[in-house]
Amino acid sequence: MPERARPPFRADHVGSLLRPPELLTAREEFKAGQITGQQLSQAEDRAISDAVTMQQDIGLPVVTDGEFRREMFHRDFLERFDNVEVTKGSITVRFHSAEGEIDQTPFAMKVTGKLGRQKPIFVDAFRYLNKVAKVTPKLTIPSPTTLHFRGGRGGVDRKAYPEMNSFFGDLARIYREEVKDLADAGCRYLQIDEVNLAFLCDPALREQVKTIGEDPEKLPNTYAMLINDSIASRPRDMTIGLHLCRGNARGYWIAEGGYEPIAEVLFNAIDVDSYFLEYDTPRAGGFEPLRNVPKGKTVVLGLITSKSGALESKDELKRRIDAAARHVPFDQLALSPQCGFASDSGGNKISPTEQWAKLRLVVDVARDVWG
Fold first, then answer.
1. E strand spans, the chain
2. CA distances from 345 to 78, 103, 193 (A)
3. Smallest Cα–Cα separation from 98: which of 320, 350, 355, 314?
4. 263: CATH
5. pLDDT (tens digit, 9 = 90+) per residue, 141-199?
6. pTM confidence score
7. 7, 139, 165, 269: which could form a disulfide with 265 (CB 3.0–4.6 Å)?
8. Structural domain that includes position 40
9. Is the dihedral of CA 176, 182, 187, 189 positive or negative?
10. Does 11 reside within a domain?
């Protein structure tokens, strides 16, 4: 079975990469006022060019900029909206890792007035990626649900938005503007990083959602409509993938639980082409929910973990692909790591050598399985 002509590809990846030390140093120097914004941008350009070359050299048919221009996968995008402020969160979350557990209160985003967008946000970043890429460039953006999930009604100014429908409408409009500008710049492969739907698979987090006045039974449908409205401006030849994970910060995760509670809405009510699904550990449940995937949509199986450097067995990965194919046609499957390698600039507890070995493994197994 040949490689797909359009994304998602049989060998794909979620997007973020470990930042090279030189880039981290440049960012610290910029914060300290030791270099200019232009000099930081030049350091980012060099790092991105090197990362793109490496992705191409190991045989990936798709490249990203590693999110090298961001401190965090979502914050750098959403902070550039008018009247969005980062505040202390109100929900205490238990983070899990192989070393143990820790309770933290992640930051929240507060909407203090009418949402706006003064200019394109990630369009220039895409233009540079497109310029240096020899294969398909993919851009990643955070889901619009992120601006709502951590604060709910209480995180949105009531004077600006007495009714939440108008808030969701403005939020979707800003996304449509960005998606159109990205399309005009040549972007034809866009990934939306959607963690909140995956959080709604966890019974404990579903209970916590009630503390912000939301109904975890209704929220998936609300979010499906928001995402669809947000991407309504995309051209017909733009592929959009939705990435779900249960938290990925330096080896820690937040949520547990299979996709069953959201499967029907996820696969049939959201107008995207593909799903990047976390499946590297039992905490994501089994493949049974994939029976809900309709024809014409692709599931990219995140079977390879980005949280540790231990390399998976090729035979085990192939066995798990076969297991998934019992629930969704084999031709609708592809392979990737379960998440990126650096949701924030600190990155996961994994070395660059291990990172590239993981991505080589994706390419090798995909070639063995699909040809």
1. 62-63, 82-87, 93-97, 100-104, 108-116, 136-137, 139-142, 189-193, 239-244, 274-278, 298-304, 333-337
2. 17, 21, 16
3. 350
4. 3.20.20.210
5. 999 999 998 788 889 999 999 999 999 999 999 999 999 999 999 999 999 999 899 88
6. 0.93
7. 269
8. 21-370
9. negative
10. no
